[in-house]
From TrEMBL:
Keyword Cytoplasm: no
Domain VTT: 62-158
Transmembrane segments: 21-38, 58-81, 108-126, 138-162, 174-195
Protein name: DedA family protein
Keyword annotations: Membrane, Transmembrane, Transmembrane helix
Top-level taxon: Bacteria
Any one GO CC term of the record: plasma membrane
InterPro entries reported for this sequence: DedA_domain (IPR051311), VTT_dom (IPR032816)
Keyword presence, Mitochondrion: no
Originating species: Marivibrio halodurans
Amino acid sequence: MLKPLRRLYDWTMEKAADPRAVWWLAAVSFAESSFFPIPPDVMLIPMVIARPDRAFHYAAVCLAASVLGGLAGYGIGFFLYDLVGQPLVEFYAAQDAVAAVAEQYHEYGWWIVFGGGLTPVPYKIITIVSGALALDPLAFTGASIVGRGLRFFAVAALLWKFGPPIRRVIEERFGLMTALFFILLVGGFAVLKLAL
């Protein structure tokens, strides 16, 4: 399992200087906000490490694509919940969480979207549920911009400031870093179940 991830990391580091890498970053950011399980950080981090001069550009690409993908997720929830949204919620085993939060979603929805955008909680579930429960689209978009913006720009700023030492740590401890990433990803799903 580590070998394919290591190849992905090495490929991303090589492609970070390629102008087309930005399009892949945008595609992953868009897809992750509505259905794709892998967060854009997987591409953002090595791209910023390889090209710190483009750190904030990459963060802006992540933000714009993620918010647009979030609106697609909102649309899935609003228009296609029974056909597409519910199977996605079931795939991520979040049915109980959705049912538990439904009554209070309109009161706390902005904070839920903001928190989902900022943390490792699976953001796609938040976007789909926001549409299914008809959260105010302006509130949804604003919370997405703030939450996702803080997340991506904080990652970019830290890597811009401390990039070379972090790159050495990642390359020397790739197995440990991969394990931590998957622990955080699984933890995000657990937090979603408990919090919602």
